[in-house]
């Protein structure tokens, strides 16, 4: 019927309706258009057939093509589930209408980025999502959060401009922005290699993968809890989808895809290692996003886009749920050991379920997605996935160990409901997709717990790596790192 | 803070012409160079000129903050609304008005964009000057 584009248009419409309540002095009613905007895309998603369409029936060369295909349906579904839970959560969290409007704009931007099959529109929608997330990160008004938002803004905009530049080069060489037309008409050449390398580097920064992750732990841990859940669960997936677009439509050189594999594995282990040393619960989860995005990149680099998309969906469910549950437990203090779920059985259940899901233990969706990722890998790379799972289990044993010690504050019902709904989604999703229990999971769990005890005896968790504030100089460091890394990729793209 | 008499008088004289030119760009934007964004910037510039010459407080009397906010979100709704009404005739952003209005949806769309862009810029300046808190 051609209604796929409504996925992005409906949240936009309701965002403006929500904004209209401010000048009309109807702020009390703002939550209704907000909820309507959060839920409306579900109707489109459920009743629309998969397929491609060009908006408005224009010819493909000039029109905007959107699609719901095998690559982006999991991403859209994951975003919808996560955003619905976050919307319910934020009703009791945010007071101002501004935050609701920004959340809806984020929703529209993400959905628009996920459905576009056109490089420029992908960029526009990714930017809508990024700009609203900068504002949301700083919306609490705390000094640290504002500084983290500033750092995120500068580095992310730097990457965006390079991305637009690379789109320009691709347009110059092929004459098209539409993915389908690009892939039909592209010829391998030096300029295309350069464009791919630049686009890849900037998307790596925006996705927060290892050497360019510097902004991610600060922004994701200092943001308000529902925003953290969205940032880790969905916003970093938009650049990952951009990588899927680039890798599927353009001829990526051997050197670059090899580099991507190495980066992915480095990201997996670096994230886990840093997460183990953290004392702040939300920072631990933020470092885990670095690690988990490594798996997504592993899927993309091995040309296993379906695996990457399913992993991204699984990650939005469990990481969003973890941020919501751990963030609301640590409402007062986020230091590990000072809070916990001792007197909150429902929260305990959700955190445990989500921890198992992120570790890739089997009836949960994480194990299905990990299976998909490793099915596309050869030999030694498979072991990296397994070793990464053990590392993840170790750090989540640590999280749960500290959480069992503390008391939970009184929480609104909607917060408990939102975290438990995501935990349930991770469980049911695994069952529906057909994750079968395996014996290896028991070994993995045991290995994780044993390693945790070993580390604890060795005193690894006593090490301090505290960071009090975001310093302005870090922006320069990040930009320099990006420049060096970009040069390296440009060199490798020619190999 | 007030500017000198020369500046104030010139501004008063120029501002109506700017608005006229903006309206021209909006209406004929579909067949000649121009369009919603450029026209919106012109609308904003005329208000911002008044603001620099007469100060925030006096400008706010004629263009109240709430009205600007109202027009801003309403024009955004107008743009999305046109795109959605096209659905009733077959496709999102279908040019269903072509038979009745010259330029069809393109012109109506431009009007929405011009209002949105103009009021957004004015709003940005309002917020900034309230923040700086001079005059």
TrEMBL record, chain B:
GO cellular component, one term: plasma membrane
Localization in the cell: Cell membrane
Na+/H+ antiporter MnhB subunit-related protein domain location: 6-122
Matching InterPro entries: CPA3_antiporter_subunitB, MnhB
Protein source organism: Thermococcus guaymasensis DSM 11113
Keyword set, alphabetical order: Cell membrane, Membrane, Transmembrane, Transmembrane helix
Principal location class: membrane
Lineage: Archaea, Methanobacteriati, Methanobacteriota, Thermococci, Thermococcales
Protein's UniProt name: Cation:proton antiporter
Membrane protein topology class: Multi-pass membrane protein
Transmembrane segments: 12-30, 36-56, 77-101, 107-128
């Amino acid at each position: 019927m051609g209604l796929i584009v409504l996925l992005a248009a409906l949240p936009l419409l309701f965002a403006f309706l929500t904004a209209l309540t401010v000048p009309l002095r109807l702020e009390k009613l703002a939550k209704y258009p907000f909820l309507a905007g959060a839920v409306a895309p579900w109707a489109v998603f459920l009743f629309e057939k998969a397929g491609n369409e060009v908006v408005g029936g224009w010819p493909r060369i000039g029109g905007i093509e959107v699609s719901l295909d095998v690559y982006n349906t999991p991403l859209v579904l994951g975003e919808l589930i996560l955003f619905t839970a976050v919307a319910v959560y934020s009703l009791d969290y945010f007071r101002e209408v501004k935050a609701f409007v920004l959340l809806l704009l984020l929703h529209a931007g993400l959905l628009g980025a996920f459905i576009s099959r056109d490089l420029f529109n992908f960029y526009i929608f990714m930017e809508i999502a990024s700009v609203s997330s900068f504002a949301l990160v700083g919306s609490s008004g705390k000094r640290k959060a504002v500084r983290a938002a500033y750092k995120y803004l500068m580095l992310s905009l730097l990457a965006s401009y390079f991305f637009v530049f690379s789109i320009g080069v691709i347009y110059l060489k092929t004459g098209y922005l539409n993915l389908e037309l690009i892939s039909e008409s592209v010829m391998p050449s030096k300029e295309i290699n350069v464009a791919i390398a630049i686009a890849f580097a900037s998307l790596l920064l925006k996705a927060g993968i290892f050497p360019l992750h510097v902004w991610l732990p600060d922004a994701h841990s200092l943001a308000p809890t529902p925003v953290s859940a969205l940032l880790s669960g969905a916003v970093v997936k938009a650049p990952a989808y951009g990588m899927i677009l680039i890798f599927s439509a353009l001829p990526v050189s051997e050197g670059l895809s090899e580099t991507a594999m190495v980066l992915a594995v480095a990201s997996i282990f670096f994230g886990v290692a840093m997460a183990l040393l953290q004392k702040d619960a939300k920072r631990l989860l933020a470092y885990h996003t670095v690690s988990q995005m490594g798996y997504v990149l592993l899927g993309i680099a091995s040309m296993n886009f379906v695996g990457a998309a399913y992993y991204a969906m699984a990650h939005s469910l469990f990481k969003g749920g973890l941020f919501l549950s751990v963030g609301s437990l640590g409402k007062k203090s986020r230091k590990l050991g000072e809070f916990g779920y001792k007197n909150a059985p429902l929260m305990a259940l959700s955190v445990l379920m989500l921890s198992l899901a992120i570790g890739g233990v089997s009836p949960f969706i994480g194990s299905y997605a990990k299976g998909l990722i490793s099915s596309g890998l050869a030999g030694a790379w498979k072991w990296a996935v397994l070793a990464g799972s053990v590392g993840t289990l170790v750090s989540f044993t640590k999280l749960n160990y500290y959480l069992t010690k503390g008391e939970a504050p009184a929480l609104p019902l909607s917060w408990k409901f939102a975290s438990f709904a995501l935990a349930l989604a991770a469980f049911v999703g695994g069952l529906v997709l057909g994750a079968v229990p395996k014996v290896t999971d028991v070994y993995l769990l045991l290995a994780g717990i044993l390693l945790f005890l070993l580390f604890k005896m060795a005193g690894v968790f006593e090490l301090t790596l505290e960071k009090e504030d975001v310093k302005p100089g870090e922006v320069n460091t990040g930009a320099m790192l990006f420049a060096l890394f970009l040069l390296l990729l440009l060199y490798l793209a020619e190999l | 803070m007030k500017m000198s008499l020369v500046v104030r008088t010139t501004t008063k004289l120029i501002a109506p012409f700017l608005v006229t030119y903006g309206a021209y760009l909006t209406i004929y934007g579909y067949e000649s160079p121009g369009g919603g964004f450029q026209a919106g910037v012109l609308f904003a510039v005329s208000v911002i000129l008044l603001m620099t010459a007469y100060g925030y407080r006096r400008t706010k009397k004629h263009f109240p903050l709430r009205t600007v906010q109202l027009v801003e979100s309403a024009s955004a709704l107008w743009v999305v609304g046109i795109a959605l009404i096209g659905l009733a005739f077959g496709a999102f952003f279908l040019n269903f008005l072509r038979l009745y209005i010259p330029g069809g949806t393109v012109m109506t769309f431009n009007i929405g964009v011009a209002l949105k862009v103009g009021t957004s810029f004015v709003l940005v300046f309002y917020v900034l000057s309230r923040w700086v808190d001079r005059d």
